[in-house]
Amino acid sequence: MTRISKEPEIRKNEILDVAEELFAKKGFDNTPVSKIVNKVGVAKGTFYYYFDSKEDIIVAILERRFNYIKKKINTVINDKTYTPIKKLEMLLMELIFPHKEGNNHINNIKIDENEKIHQKRDVLFFEIFEPYIEMVIKEGVERGSFNTNNIEETSKILFLGIDRYIHIFYNTLNDKKILDKRIKAITEVIERVLGIEGNLNLR
């Protein structure tokens, strides 16, 4: 059967789409490259033309997802009608609680069984998105909405702490009571750290 020649970016995205689907169903470790290329209908050489390894493709999938999220976040950041508190709420709901809105775009590709890949996800997630939280906190301090003497470190502690807290208990968050309990605790911590008690709504 003759393979259809396609534009490189189209072919690359086809491989990403199939890999993402298989990782979600079978998990990263249980999906060999052979299954990916067989479903796409290309040779292994084509796969390795675009990606150095299976680990490389998971990073590409995450980057693609994160770039999509960045577009949404940039819209929020640049909207002058939103207060710093509202921006913080919207960023946290998009980044930390995507499942609460039925938007499970970060955690459904089953990479937890592979510690090396999970660490790559954590580093990439932090490097891309923590600066946005820092940006909003800085704006809040400048406008008198937040009160902290160390914007940079406060942002890092909040971001890393909340992300890890949610991730450790991720499998329990389908239970609404448990989810609400954890969100309430996180809300109280953020309010106290930033001096905005009673004004943050993550529910």
How would you characterize the overall build of this protein?
67% of the residues lie in helices and 0% in strands. It has 8 helices and no strands. The protein has helices at 8-26, 33-40, 44-50, 54-77, 84-95, 115-142, 151-168, 176-194. The longest helix has 28 residues, at 115-142. The chain starts with 7 loop residues before the first helix and ends in a 9-residue tail after the last helix.
Task: Give the structure's gist in a few sentences.
This protein is an all-alpha fold. Helices cover 67% and strands 0% of the residues. It has eight helices and no strands.
Q: Give the N-to-C terminal Cα separation.
A: 54 Å
- CATH C-level class of the largest domain is Mainly Alpha
Biggest pleated sheet: none
Specify the structural class.
mainly alpha
Number of helices: 8
CATH architecture tag of the largest domain? Orthogonal Bundle
Q: Number of folding domains?
A: 2
Strand content: under 5%
Shape: elongated
pLDDT < 50 runs, ≥5 residues: none
Helicity range of the residues? 55-70%
What radius of gyration results from the CA coordinates?
20 Å
Determine the CATH superfamily of the largest domain: Tetracycline Repressor, domain 2
Annotation, overall tally of beta strands? 0
- The whole-number mean of residue pLDDT values reads 86
The succession of helices and strands, N to C, reads HHHHHHHH
